[in-house]
Amino acid sequence: MSLYSAENERRIRSQALVREWTKSGLLDPPQGAALEAELRVDVRRTNVFLRAGLALFTVFIVAASVGLTVEMFYLRDEISVGVVAGVSAIVCLGLAHYLVVRQRFYRFGVEEALAVGSVALIAYSALNLTYGLRLPLRDDNWPLIAGLVAAAAGGLGIYWRFGYVYAAIGAIACVAAIPFRFEVTPGLQHAAAAAAFAAAFVLARVRRTPPHDEYPGDDLGLIQAAAWAGLYLRLNLWFMDWRLEGSLYRMVSPWVGAPFYWFTYVMIWALPLAGLYLAIRDKDRWLLDVSLVMALVTLLTNKAYLGWPRHEWDPILLGVVLTAAAVGVRRWLSAGANGQRGGFTPARILSRDAGAVTILGTVSAGFHPDAPSYPESDKTGFDGGRSGGGGATGSY
Question: By CB neighbour count within 10 A (0-12 exposed, 13-18 middle, 19+ buried), where does 221 fall?
């Protein structure tokens, strides 16, 4: 059971909506102020920048305290280090609980870092204890498996107790990472990891009830979208190797086998389409954004899957196709009644949408994976100039 009441969670989310609507001009400032006063809650909050700074500072303190304890008592064996990490995890969790219950902290940074730090410490403790106990099944993989299991359980516990969505997403990622520690074929590893993400997606979708934009539907919607993205990334075998050139045979036969390889090829097309259908039907913004990105990644990796050569004009062609698609969708939506179709409109209603577009444009402008590089030269072109000559007598 969460330490925060469902009523407070709903009020806090409603406050954020009121602020956004006021900033976007949908509400007059007096109206926004009146609504915010009605939605006030008795918790301590801070802005995102101070929250991040406090969280980082707390992480440094926790790491330094644990390291100092280990060095002060000169602990070198795995059992002792594991015990210290386990005790430190309990202390961090107790402090986080105190700050939330007694001091009424809400997403303040300090209690978040303590809670997440307790998960990292319990995972480190499980890893060291598995190493130190010399279990019959002990090899290089079992300690890591124990650490991942502990991290997954801890992340789910933190989400259940504190409501941190990123803890639940991290727990799902840890579960999906476990198959890669077993000595099985890569195809089976990817399939097991994809099954873990698929199970998380189904569970979040089943537990999510209308209205989807209210607590806890909004949190479950984010978990659902993250699980959907993880499922796609585990099945897109070329996603991590998009820079590498290689024959189709190298990818199909020695690594995962042709049947599974072509199954994943079908899935990287089917998953974005299914996600877009579900997102449009349910008006799910998170799932819609994730599915659009998945579709873009599919277009980027399609040639690699089929073994086709890549050309310099591929990005230009992709940009033209995406621009034409965006213009076509925009014109189609604008041609509907009142400039919308089925509740979707091309008009920018909220100010945060403009901020998202700005951030995306900045990131894309700085991302040039195929930009040519030139060797640096020690010569400046003004070598050998005499004093007072400004390099005029130097060689060029």
Answer: buried
Q: What gap in Å lies between CA 227 and CA 250, rounded to an integer? A: 29
Q: What is the mean pLDDT of residues 205-212?
A: 82
Q: Tokens standing for 367?
A: 């991302």
Output the CA–CA distances (angstroms, integers) from residue 95 to 48, 89, 168, in the order listed. 21, 10, 20
Contact status, residue 75 vs residue 42, Cβ threshold 8 Å: no
- Neighbour-count burial for 27-66, b at 16+ CB within 10 Å, e otherwise: beeeebeebeeebebebeebeeeebeebbeebbeebeeeb
Check the CA dihedral 279-280-282-283 and report its sign: positive
- Residue 248: predicted pLDDT: 47
Average predicted confidence (pLDDT) for the chain: 86
Quick count: other Cβ atoms within 10 Å of Cβ 98?
A: 13
Q: Read off the pLDDT of residues 179-204 as tens digits, 9 standing for 90 and up.
A: 999 888 888 888 999 999 999 999 99
What CA–CA distance (Å, rounded) separates 242 from 297? 10
CA 76, 80, 83, 85: dihedral to nearest 10 degrees?
Answer: -10
Alpha-carbon gap, residue 20 to 130, rounded angstroms:
49
- For 3, half-sphere exposure in the C-beta direction (CA atoms, 13 angstrom radius) is 25
The whole-angstrom separation of Cα 10 and Cα 34 is 17
**pLDDT for 46-74, tens place per residue?**
999 999 999 999 999 999 999 999 999 99
